[in-house]
Amino acid sequence: MEEVLFFVSAIGALGGAIGVVALRNPFFSVLALIVHLFSLAALFLLLTAAFVAAAQVVVYAGAVMVLYVFVVAYVGGGGEPAWESIPGQRFLAPLLAIALFVELSVAVLASSLLALGGEGPDVGAGFGNPSEVGTLLLEKFLLPFEAASILLLLAAIGAVVLAGKRRESEAAS
Asked: How much is the pTM?
C-alpha cells in the first residue's frame, strides 16, 4: 500500500509542478501548486515526518496559497486561455507522452521495483519532530528560511504594484 501511495504522490507532485509552469492562467497555476504541495505532504508522511507534513499543509497549502489566490484575484488575468497552443503540438505531444511512458516503465521495472522489498534509509529517532525541525530552521537554515519569506513578501508587493499600474493605465485610456 505504501508503494502505491508513493507513486500516486510522486505523480501528483510532478504533475502539479509541471502544471505550475505550463498553465498560462495564474489561477489554474496556483491550483496546480496546491496539488503539488499536498502531494509533497503525502511524501513527507511516507518518510514518517508527520510534523513536516502538517506544516506543509497548514503553512504552504493553507496560508501561502490563500495569499497567492488573493494576489491573483487582485492582479486579474483570468481571461487568458489555460493552455497556449503551440504549432504542431497535437502531433508532438502524444509522441513525447508515449516516449516518457516507455522511459518511466523501463526505469521502474529495471531498478525501482528491486528496492521495494528493502528497508529503506535508516532515519534517526528525532527525524521530523518539532524540536528537530525548529533547530534546523533557526540554526542551520536560518538565512535561506528568512530569504524565502522575504522573497514571498516582495513577490506579493510587486504583484500589487504592477496591478495598480495596469489599472491606472486602463483608466487613463
From this structure: 0.57
